[in-house]
């Protein structure tokens, strides 16, 4: 099953107004749940895309999310971006810093992240995709506002791997 088939299946489930669909073959399985089935959401993990240095077009990204005063010194040290690793969006969708409106954010500026830690969620076609860190380090800058659309390969975070 390729990505086009998956996208068509998601569109079909959305239009059919059903609460859950399971599709299984001998080497592939997918479950799609819609809000009609209750408050449950299916999280599909996507590999995060990392690049060693941000490109010149980073300035086109939305403004940084305001950081608490305690994090101001960490943000002030972001003068030389070349030593930081950029976490980029692996897909088009809506960027969320929290798993739910009443929950705390996944990460803030100054937080330490380790491999496998969820740093954000991107909603695409009514599926919430958890984006996990593939590196360990410290978040030095958040480049996208909460609940804003993101493009494929758009920078989301700067991480200091040292």
TrEMBL record:
InterPro entries: AcCoA_biotinCC, Biotin_Carboxyl_Carrier/Decarb, Biotin_lipoyl, Single_hybrid_motif. It holds the Pfam family Biotin_lipoyl. Keywords: Biotin, Fatty acid biosynthesis, Fatty acid metabolism, Lipid biosynthesis, Lipid metabolism. One of its GO terms (molecular function) is acetyl-CoA carboxylase activity. One of its GO terms (biological process) is fatty acid biosynthetic process. CDD domains: biotinyl_domain. Pathway: Lipid metabolism; fatty acid biosynthesis. PROSITE patterns: BIOTINYL_LIPOYL. GO terms for cellular component: acetyl-CoA carboxylase complex. Coiled coil: none annotated. Residues 84-160 form the Lipoyl-binding domain. It comes from the Bacteria. This protein is a component of the acetyl coenzyme A carboxylase complex; first, biotin carboxylase catalyzes the carboxylation of the carrier protein and then the transcarboxylase transfers the carboxyl group to form malonyl-CoA. This is Biotin carboxyl carrier protein of acetyl-CoA carboxylase. The lineage of its organism: Bacteria, Pseudomonadati, Bacteroidota, Flavobacteriia, Flavobacteriales.
